[in-house]
Amino acid sequence: MVIDEGWRTGSLSAEISARVTEHDFYDLDAPVERVCSAEVPIPYARRLEEAALPQVADIVAAARRAVTGDG
Fold first, then answer.
1. 35 in Cβ contact with 2 (< 8 Å)
2. CA 62 to CA 35: how far, in whole Å?
3. pTM reported for the whole predicted model
4. What are the DSSP calls for 4-49, one per residue?
5. CA distance 59 to 49
6. CATH code at 11?
């Protein structure tokens, strides 16, 4: 799992997950999961910023998907 406050498109998490998949594909038990920011400009308002950035609940949900295989 790769967690990044950047966007999914063209981000560091995209590069990391691509390299892991290219080099270790057959060793993976599940697809590489990415938890990233919403692809919107980061808002100033606190509640909107929290909605745009990855939160603990998003990370836990991604980890559960990786462990259980539920998509």
1. yes
2. 7
3. 0.78
4. EEEESTTSHHHHHHHHHHHHHGGG-SSPPPEEEE-SSPPPSSHHHH
5. 16
6. 3.40.50.920
- What is the structure's pLDDT at 67? 87
pLDDT band of residue 58 (cuts 50, 70, 90) is very high
pLDDT of 71 above 70: no
For residues 66 and 31, what is the distance between their CA atoms, to the nearest angstrom? 7
Whose tokens are 């691509």? That residue is 18
- List the domain range (segments joined by +) for residue 30: 2-68
Which residue bears the tokens 């390299």? 19
Number of domains in the chain: 1
Structure-block tokens of residue 59: 């990370």
Q: pLDDT class for 54, splitting at 50, 70, 90? A: very high
